[in-house]
Amino acid sequence: MEPIGFHGILILLGVAVVLAALFRYLRLPQILAYLCAGIVVGPFGMGWIPDLEGTRTLAEFGLVFLMFTVGLEFSLPKLMAMKNVVFGLGGAQVLISCLVFGFVAWLFGVPPEGAVVVGGMLAMSSTAIVMKLLTEQLEQNSRHGHHAISVLLFQDLMVVPFLIVIPALAGDIKQSVWIALGWAFLKSVLVLVGIFLVGRWMLRPFFHEVASARLREYFMLAVLLLTLASAWVTEAAGLSMALGAFLAGMMLGETEYRHQVEGDILPFRDILLGLFFVTIGMMLDLGAMRQLWPWVLVCVVAIMAFKTLLILGLGRLFGMETGVALRTGLVLSQVGEFAFALMLLANQYQLFGARAAQIVLASIILSMMLAPLVVRYNGRVAKRLVPGYTQAREGNLDAIRAEASGARRHVIVCGYGRSGQNLAWMLEQEGIEYLALDLDPVRVRDARDGGKPVVFGDAARRDVLEAAGLPRATALAISFYDVSSALKILETTRLLRPDMPVIVRTMDDAALEKLKAAGATEVVPESLEGSLMMGSHLLLLMGVPVSRIVRHVRNVRTDRYRMLRGFFHGADVDEGKENAYQERLHSITLPDGADAVGKLISELPLEAAGVSVSAVRRGGIRGPEPAPETRLAAGDVLVLYGTPEALDQAEKILLEG
Q: CA-to-CA distance for 185 and 179, rounded, in angstroms?
């Protein structure tokens, strides 16, 4: 294997960092930045890095860790609870897309085995791009968002059969394709059973010993060993390394060490995935695009139009409204990152020619570049094309306006982390209305499912603050310690509401004078004591008697362990490894097919799993501490309290029994 060399690595990192920063500024997915970096530095771009065997090997490792992550996040209970949409709509979309795209590829001269792979590649959509954009637009829990996520779940699952099929298709062409496929599936079943038996008997005791050593490096090495060993076993059996990594992820996902694995493997996965997408970008021949660009444009338009219309038609068959079905189709119209994974594997076995590979590769990249635009304006397109369709939310600002529409003399809480939630709790105790703004989509989703008035929004933006009802609000609290953002919020607040009390939290007193000069009424430092002081000042400004404020502070300190641990953690991993297993709040929505629907809370073995139900929200009304005789119904949102592994077990109990 020819090494890349220090000079090549330096160039690659420099271009990737610059483009990643540019794409972040443009609010475009980082995947596109890495693809463009590969195009620029590759042999068909500036030629700074030749097409070396070493870069392709790194890309294969990136694919291995991508599939390991998919296996780690795979949830069979969640899949079965959504089975009607996942296997119905998702299965029909993938099957029809594979057949149509594969048939068209075969008509244009692609060999049959290559046409099968092309069909599978183009049937996929981008989970990374769609989930990011839907979450940013607060559409992940909308009707079209729910259907899109269900289809993506099935598409991710269907990558696994293709990882089995591609090596089989590359076998002896004189041999029957059906015999080759049958032999491949037989080998995959034997390998799968073997890996799972070994995993069930040895994995949990092995990782128990590793975890008991309390050495982070030792634990990380064990995870890497398991992943690569499983990948090696499947490759030795004539299958793909990515399949073995997926199985390793599934096995670890069933253990109590799943959350620690996610935290430890994240840096490796992100770096190797970046190299994977850079390598894919290096495969694009810009010189060939001079002759092929008309074909690429036709392919992109045809792919995106066909997938949109197909999902629109299937959605109508499955009972969706026309507008919802159209929005689902628009969201899923692009081709996704798993197409690159299948292309990389197909290239290893040379299943189709260079010309076809270039057209397909360019079409995939261009469709992903168009995806942010299509997803961002899916609601407007549906309103324009479907008469009578009314969009519930036209974007993030409309969602914030809707939440703040009935609020008068409320408090705007900027940031809903630990301090923000403590502050919101104190406001609730006094019956004071508030609206919280936060940029962690996972935290916002969980909090909203729990009935909290929390919305996704950047409080440093003037239009967001105006949408949150700044002209009508009584006070504003900045509960995070980002001085630059706090100064922007203060500038906007003082411009629109010079008389409004503003409480600011900061890490220390280094920026105290600067924040005071910018218009902060009070500046309070750090964590729990900081949030208690902030709440005291805010309640005092709201006219609450001092004696009641002191009582609230005393109650929080008395119950400080529950207050410190029982909050919605979101996607941030800044609490430290020692807190990885602390109790936390987590919300779960019961779909129609959940096992817990129709049962009493007392009938469910949640306490035995180490989980308590702290609240149930039904029909938008939140009832805390429900009675054991409460009968659960479809659509109920349960707010659970427990450790991460106990919450995983409770989710399985609620969904599949």
A: 10
Q: Does domain 583-656 match CATH 3.40.50.1000? A: no
Q: Which two tokens stand for residue 356?
A: 């076809």
The closest of 40, 129, 131, 102 to 342, measured between CA atoms, is 102
Q: Are 74 and 250 in contact (CB under 8 A)?
A: yes
Angle between helices 241-253 and 258-282 (to 10 degrees): 160
Judged on CB neighbours under 10 Å (0-12, 13-18, 19+), 123 is buried
Of the candidates 230, 258, 257, the one whose C-alpha atom is nearest the C-alpha of residue 244 is 230
CB atoms within 10 A of CB 144: 27
Q: Cα separation of 515 and 303, whole Å? A: 53
Q: Would you state the torsion angle of the CA atoms of residues 620, 623, 625, 626, taken in this order, to the nearest 10 degrees?
A: -90
In this structure, what token pair is assigned to residue 382? 């549906």
Dihedral sign computed on CA atoms, order 26, 29, 35, 37: positive
| Residue 70, pLDDT score | 73
The span from the CA of 123 to the CA of 311, in Å, is 11
Q: Which architecture, in CATH terms, is 6-384?
A: Up-down Bundle (1.20)
* pLDDT the model gives residue 394: 43
Q: Is 578 helix (H, G, I), strand (E, B) or coil?
A: helix
Average pLDDT of 566-570? 57
Q: Which fold has domain 396-565?
A: Rossmann fold (3.40.50)
pTM of the entire structure? 0.59
The pLDDT value recorded for residue 174 is 46
